[in-house]
């Protein structure tokens, strides 16, 4: 527990420090996270990170996450064109490796690269638009995790998804949403937002972050169970890997994008 707390403190200081300083250092930090998370996903399936198609995936992930930086300071790049280029290179790798790399391999890599790259790029984009929104989403995510843990330990009895994560309870999940709503209302009264213009909008975005954040956590747990691993990595002592720490956020950000809160 001591190691877990120390890791959380150090990680929090670095993450929040870059978040507050400026969008550029934050974008660089998030790009590093994205590359590590992509590496962890490759490792889950036993894909070598030194393979040609893996290297192409790394370049794509980093480029996509840094896209907001390019758009603001260098030149605007189409995310769709980047996606098409990735797909072409991956299909070409089947030919050049004489079928040593299969369609299943590139399908897994393509989905992983797109999911990691696109989701993290939304985080960097949001930082360029509004610091408070990124901080709000992150706080609600942290509050949801803590609320689920403490409420679940206190009154949790009914299992939420025992086949995936046996320690999570329905009571903990509901309690997490309630705690998230309370904290969101307090933040809304203290700090004005350029994106959230109404109380109804506040409730909507909070429910999305809290409910779908928990779903994202369960989805990542299901992936790890499929590949029979406990953690996605070991880079964060006591917490696992980067994918473990950002699983909920990666799931939520695309949904917020669909509802025009991000992008």
How would you characterize this protein structure?
- This is Phosphatidate cytidylyltransferase.
- The protein is mainly α and 263 residues long.
- The chain has two domains: 129 residues, no CATH class; 133 residues, no CATH class.
- The chain has ten helices and two strands.
- It has a two-stranded antiparallel ribbon with strand order 1-2.
- The longest helix has 28 residues.
- It is globular and about 55 Å long.
- The two termini are 38 Å apart.
- The model has no long low-confidence stretch (mean pLDDT 88).
Summarize the topology.
Layout: H1 2-21, H2 23-45, H3 52-65, H4 67-73, H5 79-96, H6 103-129, H7 131-155, E1 159-161, E2 165-169, H8 170-190, H9 199-226, H10 242-258
Helix pairs in contact: 1-2, 2-3, 2-6, 3-5, 3-6, 5-6, 6-7, 6-10, 7-8, 7-9, 8-9, 9-10
GO biological process, one term: CDP-diacylglycerol biosynthetic process
Pathway: Phospholipid metabolism; CDP-diacylglycerol biosynthesis; CDP-diacylglycerol from sn-glycerol 3-phosphate: step 3/3; Lipid metabolism
Pfam families: CTP_transf_1
Quick overview of this protein structure:
With 263 residues, the chain is mostly helical. The chain is built from ten helices and two strands. The longest helix has 28 residues, at 199-226.
Summary tags:
263 residues, 2 strands, mainly alpha, two-stranded antiparallel sheet, 76% helix
Mean pLDDT: 88
Order of the strands making up the biggest sheet: 1-2
In the predicted model, the low-confidence regions spanning at least 5 consecutive residues are none
Order of helices and strands: HHHHHHHEEHHH
């Amino acid at each position: 527990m001591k190691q877990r707390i120390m890791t959380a403190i150090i990680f929090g200081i670095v993450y929040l420090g870059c978040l507050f300083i400026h969008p550029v250092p934050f974008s660089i930090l998030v790009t590093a996270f994205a590359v590590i998370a992509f590496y962890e996903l490759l490792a889950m399936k036993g894909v070598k990170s030194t393979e040609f198609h893996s290297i192409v995936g790394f370049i794509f992930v980093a480029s996509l996450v840094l896209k907001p930086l390019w758009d603001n300071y260098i030149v605007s790049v189409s995310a769709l064109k980047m996606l098409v280029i990735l797909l072409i290179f991956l299909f070409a790798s089947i030919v050049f490796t004489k079928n040593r790399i299969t369609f299943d391999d590139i399908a897994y890599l393509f989905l992983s690269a797109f999911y990691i790259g696109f989701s993290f790029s939304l985080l960097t984009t949001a930082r360029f638009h509004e610091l408070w929104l990124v901080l709000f989403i992150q706080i609600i995510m942290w509050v949801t995790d803590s609320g689920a843990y403490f409420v679940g330990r206190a009154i949790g009895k009914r299992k939420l998804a025992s086949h995936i994560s046996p320690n999570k309870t329905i009571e903990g999940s509901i309690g997490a949403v309630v705690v998230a709503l309370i904290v969101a209302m307090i933040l809304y009264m203290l700090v004005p937002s350029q994106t959230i213009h109404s109380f109804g909008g506040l409730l909507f975005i909070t429910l999305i972050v809290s409910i779908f954040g928990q779903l994202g956590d369960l989805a990542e747990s299901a992936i790890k169970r499929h590949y029979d691993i406990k953690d996605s990595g070991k880079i964060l002592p006591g917490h696992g890997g980067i994918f473990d720490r950002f699983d909920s956020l990666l799931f939520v950000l695309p949904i917020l994008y669909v509802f025009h809160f991000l992008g």
